[in-house]
Design a protein that fits this description.
With 114 residues, this protein is mostly helical. 59% of the residues lie in helices and 0% in strands. α1 (2-38) crosses α4. It binds heme C (HEC).
Amino acid sequence: MRLAGLGFAAVMLAAGVAGALGAERGMAQMGRGLAETWCASCHLIGNEPGDKAPAASEAPSFVAVAEKFDAARREALATWLATPHGKMPSLSLSRAEIADILAYIETLGGAPGR
Ligand code: HEC
């Protein structure tokens, strides 16, 4: 009975870890969609073949943003994205949307395994 319980706990733990990784990926996908909708008019938002830098924009590419990504910077960007910048329209991104966008930008960072 106890062992069966432990086995169950182990399975739930494994499922939890897989779920967390899946969630991380899902967030990045959501973030990509949000970036396409709200950010691509000014920012080069990715490094896929179809991604093109908008003409005459001084906005940094998200790859450039991702290159200097760390925990402190992530924190600062979350704050930064909570308010409009440049001529960025007031989007009022929710905290969840900001987290999704940052998860997406983070995947552009070129760290091993990404
Ligand atoms: C109307 C144009 C415009 C739109 C739309 C826009 N941005 Fe920007 N963004 C800029 C400009 C211009 C800069 C650089 C100048 C500045 O700092 O204000 C910038 C800078 C940034 C930076 C760099 C901040 C830093 O500290 O280096 C990030 C991150 C960023 N934008 C994210 C976003 C995200 C995410 C979206 C979509 C939700 C978005 N931007 C939409 C124009 C825009």
